[in-house]
Automatic annotation (TrEMBL):
<dbReference type="GO" id="GO:0006623">
    <property type="term" value="P:protein targeting to vacuole"/>
</dbReference>
<dbReference type="GO" id="GO:0045053">
    <property type="term" value="P:protein retention in Golgi apparatus"/>
</dbReference>
<dbReference type="InterPro" id="IPR009543">
    <property type="entry name" value="VPS13_VAB"/>
</dbReference>
<dbReference type="InterPro" id="IPR026847">
    <property type="entry name" value="VPS13"/>
</dbReference>
<dbReference type="GO" id="GO:0007005">
    <property type="term" value="P:mitochondrion organization"/>
</dbReference>
<protein>
    <recommendedName>
        <fullName>Vacuolar protein sorting-associated protein 13 VPS13 adaptor binding domain-containing protein</fullName>
    </recommendedName>
</protein>
<feature type="domain" description="Vacuolar protein sorting-associated protein 13 VPS13 adaptor binding">
    <location>
        <begin position="8"/>
        <end position="211"/>
    </location>
</feature>
<dbReference type="Pfam" id="PF25036">
    <property type="entry name" value="VPS13_VAB"/>
</dbReference>
Length: 1027
């Protein structure tokens, strides 16, 4: 065994990339192409770089045939090649492939093994991602169709061969004419000429996918044209010589059989005009005999085909003399004149011009072609003459024309001889339609291809009538003025993620036997961020203006679906989606929780267990045999303008941090970056949804890259200079066009305050992350949280932050020195002393920056223009707890309002959940009380919106039970009942407090809910394990 000495390949980087390298052996043509995929790991392997080496090409045979593969350079003949250069693939197998000869063109050929006299296909390019059909022929020219999908995954091209019959054909020849049409691809041997039968459809695949994209169409007689299949709507004409027989009509009334050939009579003679030695005689019709064929030219002359050498009809020239029907001598009305053929002569135009009229062949006004000696002259070999018209004879037909004068035209080929070729898209199929100009093709039903049947939009006869609906037409019009709301609730943790609102919806649905269409219009679209800790309550909302276009729809969706008998093909005639300019606010925590809701955590955990998850482990079966493919004759997503903002989270949970790492997500905080998205359009592609999704993703990523300058100019750490420029521009425009000085001042104030607030906030946050410890930083963030984003609220938060900074600076040295000495002894004492000295200076500075930031924010809120305002939530976040059995409760505004009060009272402690809220516990002149029962406390507070005053608060561990009590009170000699709830507690000072209720029903309901909350609390505390 000889040992091959290899050579080192070129070096490659270990950064994230996908490439390939060629490995060659000395003194050999063997070439191994290796795919190289370099990528970073995820999860536990986020610090690991994986370098995966795979074969460059991997073949998958998912067809029902046994296939053979070979490089094109190794195929010497269409049927024969060296057996050691052929690779055999059984159905269902896959294997790596390397080029046997790296010095030749890398083209792959395939044929069907076991098929009688199967030929090799043309060379197939497999070094780029694409999909194409393959035409494999046998010795008889019969076609076997395969489909090849080439997908680049990592560093490997996956070549997937399937049966093409599961999808519509790429080309279909629809022959509406009455004659057969022959065709083959330009540049391919004419032996692969294929016949399209009259009035039938034939599926076709180009023999050479990378060859000329045009067909040579040949009509009977040898006339042909070249027709491009890529020019949709292009029209060309092709003609064929449609010769005629000049027949005696009455001799064709009976078709004689062999048994009665001797007694066939006049009606079965089948006599026509023929030529012998330039004499026109009556002869028996013989199909294919050129001496009997005539052609009427544009001058009314009858050209004799047999007197001229055979030529192609389209190439016939006037250089070759054509003999025409003529009289032997000048006509004599009292005698017969024999017929001959002579060259065309303009001086004999009166005797060489003929016309078919009233069942006769006429020359002059009252002279016609007939058999000499009347009926007795209707015999083969007798002369044909021109004589006077006769209306009486021994034998006449129903039109009183004598048998010997009754002449008709019989065509050698059916049709008019003039065909029109047109290319139309029938869904994903290129339909090459051939029509006769004299016939209406809409009335013709084509015979379908028995090997590959697919319905035609243009020929309704191909559709299976059994699948048609009972109703011919159904129109549905739906109007929802209040719209539809969609609530997205996560299971773990249980919370409402988003609420999607679509208002003023108009839907028009039309169902026809051959089409289904939908027209969806939405006037108002809004997506709310329903997270309780959301920084911004809105994710997306469309702009509303007071102009003439204020009634413009926010969202328009139009689609028209065409029928397809193939379950793997979904065909759209058109698909369009338009959205009005909108504002999008992307919050980091919202994105991460959405990824968690979509199951991304499970996906990453599954792959973290497989550190060697290279291409074959993850994609052992990378293709679906029956994957649906979608065709769009026209797909359009309209252009729009988006005002984009991104908000980063100051702190994330451990779970969200892991998801962020696995996503590789890095966000920069910016606000109001105006991005103009161009339209996305696609036409005449037939691909899977995954391919369309990748194209759509690439389009919008490129759009964001094009607007990188707008995003950079809106970042917070630069003070949003682009936002300041926009505010200044709007103020100057208001001053110039509206004469509004107020608008100028307001916009300039907003721009300056906005930039100041963002700069100071960025500085204080950055300094806080460096100087403050985790506890101080969390305390600072809670102080700066504004429950009600008003000017007063921001000023109050700024003052609190300033006070916190001053207090931290005063106590910094003592605190850090003490903590350091307590934890690390003498070294900790000195390190703590250093931290304290630094904190003494920086903490007050942070407080000053917080005060400046919140003050500027307060000014910004007062000067905010209408285009900067965000709408309120359509509804408060859903309360997901409180239903028995842990089920998801119906949405209740009362419970949502109670949840809002709960997190105001407990200072946004989201670990505490609401169980029950009673807004009308007691509502009279003496007291206005509300009841709030959570998983931790029972609270009774007064009705104050911003700062509820707590009248009673008791932890559930201190509650023993609750009972409704009814007492009678005498007022003005009237005994009136009073209703209370009595809460039994183990608190020493107040053991049985009573709270008055409005009605008995309220008292019973309140006591029942308090007892339920107490039972839930005890069950949770006494549980051995928490699930």
């Amino acid at each position: 065994m000889s040992t091959l000495v290899g050579r080192w390949c070129k070096s490659f980087g270990i950064h994230k990339e996908t490439t390939f390298r060629e490995l060659k052996a000395e003194q050999s043509k063997i070439n191994y192409v290796i795919g190289v995929n370099v990528q970073r790991g995820t999860g536990l392997y986020s610090c690991t770089t994986f370098i995966t080496l795979t074969p460059r090409f991997q073949l998958y045979n998912r067809s029902t045939h046994r296939l053979e593969f070979a490089q094109k350079c190794d195929i010497k003949e269409m049927k024969k090649t060296s057996s050691d250069k052929v690779i055999i693939a059984l159905p269902g197998c896959n294997f790596p492939f390397h080029w046997p000869n790296c010095e030749q063109e890398p083209l792959l050929c395939v044929r069907v093994a076991g098929e009688d006299f199967s030929h090799w296909s043309s060379g197939l390019p497999v070094n780029e991602a694409k999909s194409l059909y393959i035409n494999v022929r046998n010795e008889l020219g019969e076609m076997i169709f395969l489909r090849l999908e080439v997908i680049l995954h990592g560093g490997t091209y996956l070549l997937h061969f399937t049966d093409a019959s599961t999808l519509p054909p790429p080309i279909r020849i629809d022959n509406y004419s009455e004659v057969p049409i022959y065709f083959y691809q330009k540049g391919i041997e004419s032996q692969w000429r294929t016949t399209a039968k009259p009035q039938s459809s034939l599926a076709y695949v180009l023999d050479d996918p990378i060859g000329p994209q045009s067909l040579l169409l040949e009509a009977p007689g040898g006339n042909f044209i070249e027709y491009s299949i890529n020019k949709s709507g292009a029209t060309k004409s092709i003609t064929y010589a449609n010769f005629i027989y000049i027949a005696f009509k009455e001799t064709f009334q009976i078709v004689p059989s062999d048994c009665d050939n001797k007694n066939k009579g006049i009606e079965g003679q089948q006599l026509v005009l023929g030529v012998k030695d330039k004499r026109v005689i009556i002869t028996k019709k013989c199909t294919g005999d050129r001496s009997q064929l005539w052609l009427m030219n544009s001058y009314g002359q009858l050209e004799h085909e047999g007197s001229s050498p055979p030529t192609e009809y389209s190439k016939s020239t006037h250089q070759t003399p054509r003999l025409v029907l003529d009289l032997e001598k000048p006509p004599n009305p009292t005698d017969y004149t024999k017929l001959v053929v002579r060259p065309q002569n303009n001086q004999r135009v009166t005797t060489q011009t003929w016309r078919f009229e009233n069942g006769r062949l006429m020359c002059h006004a009252n002279m016609c072609v007939q058999a000499a000696n009347g009926v007795y002259g209707l015999q083969p070999g007798f002369d044909a003459v021109v004589g006077r018209m006769e209306t009486s004879s021994r034998a006449s037909n129903s039109e009183h024309v004598p048998f010997e004068q009754s002449i008709e035209i019989q065509k050698l080929r059916p049709g008019s001889g003039h065909l029109e070729v047109m290319n139309k898209m029938d869904g994903p199929i290129k339909s090459i339609q051939i029509h006769d100009v004299k016939f209406n093709s809409d009335e013709i039903i084509l015979a379908p291809d028995p090997m590959w049947n697919h319905a035609s939009v243009f020929n309704k006869g191909l559709t299976n009538n059994k699948n048609l609906p009972i109703l011919d037409e159904l129109m549905i019009k739906l109007t929802l003025s209040k719209g539809v709301g969609v609530s997205i609730v996560t299971r773990s943790p249980c919370e409402e993620l988003a609420y999607i609102t679509l208002e003023n919806i108009i839907v028009d649905i039309i169902l026809l036997p051959f089409a289904k269409s939908i027209d969806l219009q939405v006037r108002d679209l809004q997506i709310d961020n329903q997270l309780l800790e959301a920084q911004c309550p809105i994710v997306l909302h469309t702009w509303k203006s007071n102009t003439e276009n204020s009634d413009q729809e926010s969202l328009i969706l139009r689609a028209k679906l065409l029928p397809s008998p193939n379950k793997n093909a979904v065909i759209f005639e058109n698909f369009s989606f338009d959205i009005k300019p909108c504002t999008v606010v992307i919050e980091e925590k919202f994105i991460l929780k959405t990824a968690l809701f979509l199951g991304y955590k499970k996906h990453t955990q599954r792959h973290e267990k497989l550190p060697d998850n290279h291409i074959y482990h993850k994609y052992e079966n990378p293709f679906s045999k029956n994957a649906k493919r979608f065709y769009f004759e026209s797909c359009l997503i309209g252009s729009t303008q988006v005002r984009l903002s991104v908000l980063t989270a100051p702190k994330l949970s451990t779970e969200l941090v892991e998801i962020k790492k696995s996503l590789g997500l890095t966000l920069i905080k910016f606000e109001d970056a105006i991005i103009e998205f161009d339209k996305f359009s696609d036409r005449h592609h037939f691909e899977t949804l995954e391919v369309y999704a990748k194209a759509l993703k690439a389009h919008y990523i490129n759009q964001l890259k094009w607007h990188a300058a707008a995003i950079l100019g809106s970042v917070d750490f630069l003070g949003n200079p682009l936002g300041f420029a926009n505010d200044l521009s709007e103020g100057v425009s208001g001053l110039i066009f509206e004469g509004s000085v107020k608008s100028l001042v307001k916009n300039v104030t907003h721009g300056i305050s906005n930039s100041t607030a963002k700069l100071t906030e960025t500085l204080s946050d950055s300094l806080g992350r460096v100087v403050l410890d985790e506890h101080d930083n969390e305390t600072r963030q809670k102080i700066l949280e504004v429950a009600h984003p008003t000017s007063g609220g921001h000023l109050a938060a700024g003052l609190k932050g300033f006070g916190f900074g001053l207090l931290g600076g005063v106590t910094s040295i003592v605190r850090h020195t003490y903590v350091g000495a307590q934890s690390d002894g003498l070294p900790g004492f000195f390190s703590g002393l250093g931290k304290g000295i630094v904190g003494t200076v920086t903490k007050p500075l942070i407080g000053v920056l917080d005060l400046a930031s919140e003050t500027a924010t307060a000014v910004r809120e007062t000067s905010r223009g209408s285009h900067h305002y965000l709408p309120d939530r359509k509804r408060l976040p859903r309360c997901v707890t409180g239903a028995p059995g842990g089920l998801l409760p119906f949405y209740s505004y009362r419970q949502s309002k109670g949840q809002q009060y709960l997190y105001i009272i407990n200072r946004r402690n989201f670990g505490e959940k609401l169980i029950f809220y009673e807004p009308n516990l007691c509502n009279d002149k003496e007291a206005q009380l509300r009841l709030l029962v959570s998983t931790e406390y029972v609270r009774i507070f007064s009705r104050c919106e911003e700062d509820p005053a707590i009248m009673f608060e008791c932890h559930l561990s201190e509650v023993l039970s609750c009972h409704p009590i009814t007492t009678n009170t005498t007022i003005s000699n009237k005994v009136l009942p009073s209703y209370y709830i009595e809460i039994s507690t183990n608190v020493p000072k107040i053991t049985r407090p009573r709270v008055r209720c409005q009605t008995e029903d309220i008292a019973e309901r309140a006591s029942r809910c308090i007892n339920y909350a107490k039972a839930v609390y005890d069950e949770r505390e006494l549980s051995v394990a928490t699930f």
